[in-house]
Amino acid sequence: MKIKLSSVALLVLVIISSAFIAPVLKPVTYKVDVEKSSLTWTGKKLTGSHNGTIDLLSGSLQFDGKKLAGGNFVINMTTIKDADKSANLEKHLKADDFFGVDKFPTTTFVIKKITAGTGNIVNVTGDLTIKDVTNSITFPALIAWNADGSVSATADKITIDRTKYGIKFRSKGMFPDIGDKMIYDDFDLSIKLIATK
């Protein structure tokens, strides 16, 4: 009889305890609006610089309440544009010397870790894949909730070392004797994602 009472008491205790455990909520997914979002690039050489845009193909952001919990985006590399409308530069950037867009039409980024920064700024770490080569990068991003219920995630400067992705054309690091024809290994991306439920 004591064993039965102990079993019943234990069962009641488990039921009562589980009633006070908060349910684990799954992060809410927001879809990136590629028409409202933007991505710009800047590349520098010894004698100047170039900049332009690239279109986003898709993306999503996951939120746990108001906190960024994960996400990803895909870049359509075939849409590389030069701000000065240089057809030759655009063709070269799409060629095998650089991004080889015929073989590698997309670049992807997948969030792996988020740490708190100051205010609405978070530090985002994730895997960036260019030309089927993946490296981890970290950058600060500003998260802002908009009046219409959408959310903005903005990273003003994401610095990427192109040589880590096999892009070595006129690299000073790879070819020290290149002289004034050198192109800096690092290029910068600036991205603004607008996402809605």
TrEMBL record:
<protein>
    <submittedName>
        <fullName>YceI family protein</fullName>
    </submittedName>
</protein>
<feature type="domain" description="Lipid/polyisoprenoid-binding YceI-like">
    <location>
        <begin position="29"/>
        <end position="196"/>
    </location>
</feature>
<dbReference type="Pfam" id="PF04264">
    <property type="entry name" value="YceI"/>
</dbReference>
<dbReference type="InterPro" id="IPR007372">
    <property type="entry name" value="Lipid/polyisoprenoid-bd_YceI"/>
</dbReference>
<feature type="signal peptide">
    <location>
        <begin position="1"/>
        <end position="21"/>
    </location>
</feature>
<dbReference type="InterPro" id="IPR036761">
    <property type="entry name" value="TTHA0802/YceI-like_sf"/>
</dbReference>
<keyword id="KW-0732">Signal</keyword>
